[in-house]
Design a protein that fits this description.
The structure holds two protein chains of two kinds. Chain A has a single domain, classed as 2-Layer Sandwich (Beta Polymerase, domain 2), CATH 3.30.460.80. Chain A is built from four helices and six strands; from the N terminus they run βαββαβββαα. In chain A, strands 1-2-3-6-5-4 form a six-stranded mixed sheet. In chain A, strand 2 and strand 3 form a beta hairpin. Chain B has a single domain, classed as Orthogonal Bundle (Cytochrome-c3 Hydrogenase, chain B). In chain B, 48% of the residues lie in helices and 13% in strands. In chain B, a hairpin with a 2-residue loop joins strand 4 and strand 5. The chains are: A alpha+beta, B alpha+beta. At the A-B interface, strand 4 and helix 3 of A face helix 1, helix 3, helix 8, strand 6 and strand 7 of B.
């Protein structure tokens, strides 16, 4: 082992206050969610004052539907994903919801392995159409039952999914660039 | 969109863009037409895709800050504000009061600049050639203030994580006040040109109607939602930067058509002036930036923070893995989400209305494609 270099003394960073911990989400809505979905929701927590639920991927659309009809979460703000290649369930799907009447935000998250086809939420919220297309485009997650699952930002015949962690920032589809732009490399 | 058949029907597929002047950038809309009537549309986007979210994962939190200005480049200050607030949330730091007040002033100035650009180009699309010159004349005054403050006019990089990089320059307050005094009569001038102009009214009224229910279904926010009668503005609903201290109204209309969206934005400019006047009167003394560690390492976790950008809800979802670089940055762009409603708004309308509706959505392709 190499010798450790002596580090210059530096001021201690400000200690994060106690609110930085993940705390259980305790609210009437959280209790109702737990009652309704039981084991299919594994965690109801709050971090930095933002509430989230971790659910089984099969239950997501049902939860969105329930939140829309019972909880009045009528605005699907965003759908996105995070790639964690080292975890057994590689992708984390994130649905951000907002309720106009309650003025409250909720995140619903689910982890899925590669190749899993989550159900599309386009039947519940129309806005899911393009948002899911972007997730498909960037991560290669295919949503079953989606009305029009095509790439949206990348060219249609592009190979690879850019926001995956194993896709380096300088990588490109050499074949596509050669065919369509007529140059050897876009870099 | 179903395929068109050419020989046995009157249906026609027309390609609009990606270099059409009314698409405000590189947006391609494939229109399916029956004569002049629009039967369906398909938006082809991505021409400006630069992979901003990927770049974020390969830069430190501080390094990524200037990149966000390049998304909605006509409202760069708002982008920067949203990003700084999101990172500040993750490291649990709040900007000092002085910084917050200056942020409000610059963001509202930028909202006016963004609305002015929208108004000028929207009027140009409809065929009114004059307003664009007036709008750019006033917008120039705002850009001069930005230039005096930070040296840049468009991609300002105005804010830093934790507060402001620069102290205000000598005479900032006077210039901002002078702009407010000068600007309000100008709004009346624009309105005189357009609001009761018969061609303007005929081209906009009952065009591209989007009801409140449809707005919520499509996740449409900003002036488009407010024109449909929903009194919702993040500055009021979930105030940030001390917006709760200012006295202002959220303009709304009932019909949700292109004309109402025009009126809502006009009134929003007046309300922005109102906010700026209150803010510039009481810029508190004190530090311009909070104590932020030189090497930013937010603890593991995630946060979603959104602000009311000129175009709607602009959100940042940032995941930290405890390192100096964000693990994932997701930008929730208002333009991208709002553009999805275009199909719903132009079905059954005429080709010329498509131009009006693209203009009224106030999209910026840099933000749609990121």
């Amino acid at each position: 082992m190499a010798e450790e270099k002596p580090l210059p003394p530096k001021p201690a960073p400000p200690k994060p206050p106690a609110t930085m911990a993940v705390i259980p989400w305790q609210a009437e809505l959280a209790a109702r969610l737990k009652d309704r979905f039981g084991d299919r929701i594994s965690e109801l927590s709050s971090y930095l004052g933002q509430n989230f639920a971790i659910a089984q991927p099969e239950a997501i659309v049902e939860i969105l539907e329930w939140l829309k009809s019972e909880g009045d979460f009528d605005y699907l703000v965003d759908i996105t994903a995070v790639d964690w290649p080292k975890k057994p369930d590689r992708f984390e799907l994130v649905y951000i919801l907002y309720s106009f009447s309650r003025n409250e935000r909720v995140r619903v998250k689910a982890s899925i392995p590669e190749g899993f086809r989550p159900q599309s939420a386009a039947g519940v919220h129309l806005t899911a159409n393009w948002l899911e297309r972007e997730v498909f485009d960037m991560f290669g997650i295919e949503f079953s039952g989606h009305p029009d699952l095509r790439r949206i930002l990348m060219p249609e015949d592009w190979q690879g999914y850019p926001l995956r962690k194993d896709y380096p920032i300088l990588q490109q589809d050499e074949h596509w660039v050669h065919e369509n732009v007529g140059i050897e490399s876009g870099q | 969109m179903p395929d068109a058949t050419f020989l046995d029907s009157t249906e026609l597929v027309l390609n609009m863009g990606p270099q059409h002047p009314s698409t405000h950038g590189v947006l391609r809309v494939i229109l399916k037409l029956d004569g002049e009537k629009v039967l369906g549309t398909d938006c082809v986007i991505g021409y400006l895709h630069r992979g901003v979210e990927k770049i974020a994962e390969n830069r430190t939190y501080v390094q990524f800050n200037p990149y966000v200005d390049r998304m909605d480049y006509v409202a760069a200050v708002s982008n920067s504000l949203g990003y700084c607030l999101a990172v500040e949330k993750l490291i649990n730091v709040e900007a000092p009061p002085r910084a917050q007040t200056v942020r409000v002033i610059l963001t509202e100035l930028n909202r006016i600049a963004s609305h002015l650009l929208w108004l000028g180009t929207h009027a140009l699309d409809i065929g009114a050639l004059t307003p664009v010159f007036y709008c750019f004349r006033e917008r120039e005054e705002i850009l001069k203030i930005f230039e005096n403050y930070c040296g840049a006019r468009l991609t300002t990089h105005a804010f830093r994580i934790g507060g402001l990089q620069y102290e205000l320059y000598e005479g900032f307050e006077q210039e901002v006040k002078a702009f407010c005094d000068m600007f309000l009569p100008k709004v009346a001038e624009y309105e005189e040109l357009l609001t009761n102009n018969r061609i303007w009214v005929k081209r906009l009224q009952n065009i591209g109607i989007l009801t409140a229910e449809e707005c919520k279904q499509y996740g449409v926010t900003g002036p488009v939602l407010r024109a449909a009668g929903v009194r919702w503005d993040l500055r009021k609903a979930q105030p940030y930067c001390g917006y709760e201290k200012y006295d202002f109204l959220i303009p709304t209309r009932q019909n949700g058509d292109t004309y109402d969206r025009y009126l809502v934005r006009m009134e929003e400019m007046r309300q922005s002036v109102r906010i700026i006047r209150q803010a510039v009167e009481g810029i508190p003394d004190g530090p311009a930036i909070a104590k932020v560690p030189k090497v930013l390492k937010p603890p593991m976790g995630e946060a979603y923070v959104s602000i009311e950008a000129p175009k709607g809800e602009l959100g940042y979802y940032i995941v930290s893995d405890g390192s100096t670089q964000p693990y994932r940055v997701r930008v929730r762009p208002p333009s991208f989400v709002n553009l999805q409603a275009l199909d719903r708004m132009v079905r059954g309308a005429l080709i010329a209305d498509v131009v009006a509706v693209i203009g009224t959505l106030d999209i910026v392709l840099g933000e749609v494609d990121r």
